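Following up on my earlier message about flavin-adenine dinucleotide. Here are the inputs again, as you asked, copied directly from the submission form:
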Amino acid sequence: MPIALVWFRNDLRLADNPALRAALDGGYTPLPLYIHAPEEEFPWAPGAASLAWRHQSLAALDADLRQRGTHLRLFHGPSLAILQAVVAASGAEAVFWNRRYEPAIEQRDTGIKQALRAQGLRVESFNGSLMFEPWAVQTKQGGPFKVFTPFWRAASAQWRNEPLWEAPAALAEADTGPAGVPLAALGLLPTPRWDMPFWSDWTPGEAGAHAALEVFIDGALHGYADSRDRPDQVGTSRLSPHLHFGEIAPWRLAAAIQSARSAASAAGVDAWLRELGWREFAHHLLHHFPQSAQHNFNPAFDRFAWANLREETLERWRTGRTGVPIVDAGLRELLATGWMHNRVRMIVGSYLTKHMRAHWLEGARWFWDTLVDADLANNTLGWQWVAGTGADAAPYFRVFNPVTQATRFDPDARYITRWVPELAKLPTALRFAPWTDPAVAARLAPDYPAHPLVDLASGRDAALGAYRTLRASR
Ligand SMILES: Cc1cc2nc3c(=O)[nH]c(=O)nc-3n(C[C@H](O)[C@H](O)[C@H](O)COP(=O)(O)OP(=O)(O)OC[C@H]3O[C@@H](n4cnc5c(N)ncnc54)[C@H](O)[C@@H]3O)c2cc1C
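Thanks, got it. Here's what our run produced:
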């Protein structure tokens, strides 16, 4: 049988994999491969936590392929040159992959497609990761959306349930072509192995994604509409890294969540599908406004008086030593697990960009390096939203009060105490704002900063002052 390269990227699964399916339907023997080429993603080469996840996920994919009779070949180097070399050595006649939507990757892939087609190969790419590709949803005028609600209304009107495709039971081995390199040679794991504790929380790979879905459907989905904002509970799906790496198709998730709809779960189902909609919207925006990963979506903010912070000040934020308990809890959760609850992402982001007045890119870059679900579309949207610089963003003058947020969403301070155990001896009410009783804090929490890095009231006033100056200068 003729051979087709199946180039795995952010679609590290066998079920619902349109590229793999196209190879099989076309009568080809698939030759599965992965190419590590981080420099081709510049300026957003994958961060350290993301690479560590990818290592685990590639290992899982290889094991799944081996169980079926073939295996994953790994390469390190320029993608086009490697694809051409594998084609030449294997005699492959076709190359199939599932699309990615990051600006650098879109540009690279267009060039690769042209070059390989010019060699006479059959080259096809597919949608493997979105419910609606960025160009599929348009305003009445035929342009992109900038606001979520009308985007999601238009997208929902186009909704159709994609048929599911089960992973093949067996796959023939393409017994030719270069062997590639061992997984360890890709150098995806950090030294020292600070990622080790992550893997008690997470199981990267397709089976892990399906298991996470089951856990969510049997548990948090029912109460999701209320519990999704509670970092002290397991109230969300924790599917984000699985979705980012394409270990499960969004349309399989949507189908499973919809089939769990009952009178009791309806609000949770609708709320969850809407969050999936934000992911779609983020990809829509990044595709149509590729500069937004680097620049303020709202260019007025190019003149904003961002503070020029010292490295050690930023480091106190990054490592969770700001003296604001909910902020520190979130940043420590991130370092310990590679993930942070969405509500707390908003709180730490607001403190950084409003109270500390750091440019949102400082936060976006830190998240990029430390999140296992780091995703250029979602991270860009999240940070521009929080900073008030984005499309459909929270207005700049809406400054989150981290103490009010904590008392509302972590009412017993359980989340705070879990990640900031130095505060455990304080009475609960004081764990949200220990500086309000300095004598008690000094006695019962002596190892915790005595004052917030930036005082909440004056930080807020300074941020609003900078915003007023910006508006006055129009
Ligand atoms: C500053 C900031 C940065 C962020 N960076 C990322 C990032 O790099 N990668 C990432 O996947 N998400 C990011 N998010 C969005 C959100 O925080 C995470 O998707 C969510 O916390 C993942 O947890 P979950 O899977 O349990 O979510 P659930 O609540 O179960 O939601 C289901 C899925 O919907 C999607 N989703 C949920 N909320 C959002 C959102 N606000 N925007 C876009 N998609 C969403 C995710 O794919 C998520 O897995 C960011 C949010 C903020 C405020």
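One observation from looking it over: Residues 228, 236-240, 243-244, 275-276, 278-279, 282, 342, 345-346, 349, 367, 371, 373-375, 378-379, 381-383, 386 surround flavin-adenine dinucleotide (CB under 6 Å). Hope that helps, and feel free to reply on this thread.
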